[in-house]
Amino acid sequence: MVPLEGFTTLRIGGPARELVEATTEGDLIDAVREADERGDRVLVLGGGSNLVVADAGFDGRVARVATRGVSLSREGERVAVRAAAGEPWDALVARLVDEGLAGVECLAGIPGLVGATPVQNVGAYGQEVSDTITRVRAWDRRDGRVVELAAGQCDFGYRDSLFKRDARDRYVVLAVTFALRPGGAPALRYGELTRALEGRDATLATVRDAVVSLRRAKGMVLDAGDPDSQSAGSFFVNPVVDEDTARGAEARARASGALREGESMPRFAAPGGRVKLAAGWLIERAGVAKGTRLGNAAVSQKHSLALVNRGGATARELLALAAMVRDAVRARLGVTLTPEPVFAGFDRDDPLASG
Ligand code: EPU
User: Fold this and answer.
1) Would you identify the CATH topology of the domain 70-217?
2) Which of 117, 135, 143 is nearest to 81 (CA)?
3) What is the rounded average pLDDT of the residues 104-115?
């Protein structure tokens, strides 16, 4: 039995029956294949920054991804960067920015490993990894072979991909290739980021630094000195809803007095005429204040969308808080929030579903 809480940024969760650390691609494949052949459950563990482990732990094999290696090669106008799944993401971003390669500078300060980035199409401040990913190398557990998937096959969407949806648990990401622009300009697509850079030259490095400062102010940079960073980042995805639901939420917020005269609800255009709402805003306006506690779990004091472990929280407390938040938003604003993290050791993939 191996305690898992130290492998998660939330620092929550019971033990795993077995943990295998894989430092080579071959070891990682073997670790998963062996367990699959035995009929054991498998949890592929990266940085543990988007993971909630049950209090009872995980009754199966945890394959910890510790593969390393980054290679750069010129591909026409771009530089192809191939990184092993176990490479720490933030260090990779720092290196690419220092080398003058544009395309991931807004994704600085994000915890976790490279292999997790395509799974939920990691994104922040106007950039998503799907903007630059060209290939994903993966172990196909169903067919028992290594595959190279082109970006177009990965079905990327907002916080979504083939790896998360249709083929959940089918692929183990082994390496990811990104195409970056040498000497390219930084992406300035997020109002908050553009404002933070006012009066300064926007270079890859200043954008990266500004992103890290913004994240830090929201408790979204791992820091032993910041209790609000003991979280899994955003606990819910921003809901993408139809126009009627968006209007309904705004009308209800207005009727309840949560939306004041002259104020409007934040909303962003999403594909297919849909509307993306700001989950953090909905949580606040549903009456759940920052810092709200349930046992040792709490809503972050810096950002309503992060649920944090204030010290000694259990998964049970965290999920009770998450359910309370979700129920408040549903009851007051008519929008149902969906959790973002991966859950391990629970009876269902989404332990919040159906109450
Ligand atoms: N807001 C509030 N109260 C809060 C926080 C936010 O009202 O406490 C409202 C504000 O109106 C704000 C809006 O929500 O303008 C958006 O907030 P923010 O810019 O912080 O971004 P977010 O939508 O809450 C998303 C990602 C983050 C990413 C940021 C920046 C999701 C689920 N989260 O958060 O990603 O860093 O945008 O691009 O899409 C993560 O996934 O773990 C994560 C941290």
Assistant:
1) 3.30.465
2) 135
3) 98
Residue 46 main-chain phi, psi, to 5 deg? -100, -120
pLDDT for the residue numbered 354:
57
As a CATH number, domain 2-65 is 3.30.43.10
Q: Cβ(344)–Cβ(53) under 8 Å?
A: yes
Q: Per-residue pLDDT for 193 more than 90?
A: yes
Q: What angle do CA 146, 147, 148 make, to 5 degrees?
A: 135
Q: How many residues does the chain have?
A: 355
159 is catalytic: yes
**CA of residue 263 to ligand 1 center, whole Å:** 19
Residue for token pair 């990682």 = 28
Ranges in the chain annotated CATH 3.30.465.10: 70-217
Q: What is the pLDDT of residues 253-274, one digit of tens each?
A: 999 999 998 999 999 999 999 9
- Per-residue pLDDT tens digits for 116-129: 999 999 999 999 99
How many A from CA of 110 to the centre of ligand 1? 13
Rounded CA-CA distance 220/234 in Å is: 9
Highest CATH level, class, for 227-344: alpha beta
Is 121 close to ligand 1, i.e. is its CB under 6 Å away?
no
Contact assessment for residue 105 and residue 127, using Cβ atoms and an 8 Å cutoff: yes
Mutation to probe ligand 1, out of 305, 307, 325 (largest number of atoms < 8 A from CB): 305
State the average pLDDT over residues 44-60. Answer: 98
* Range 132-145 average pLDDT: 98
Per annotation, catalytic residue among 161, 229, 231, 234? 234
pLDDT at 355: 47
What b/e sequence results for 111-130 when a residue is b if at least 16 CB atoms lie within 10 Å of its CB, and e otherwise? Answer: bbbbbbbbbbbbbbbbbbbb
Q: From the CB of residue 310, how many other CB atoms can be counted at a distance below 10 Å?
A: 18
Phi, psi of 17 (to 5 degrees): -65, -40
- For tokens 């998360």, the residue is 164
Gap between the Cα atoms of 176 and 148, Å rounded = 9
| Chain region(s) in the chain for CATH 3.30.43.10 | 2-65
Q: Which residues of the chain form CATH 3.90.78.10?
A: 227-344
- Taking CA atoms, 187 is separated from 101, 150, 270, in Å, by 12, 24, 19
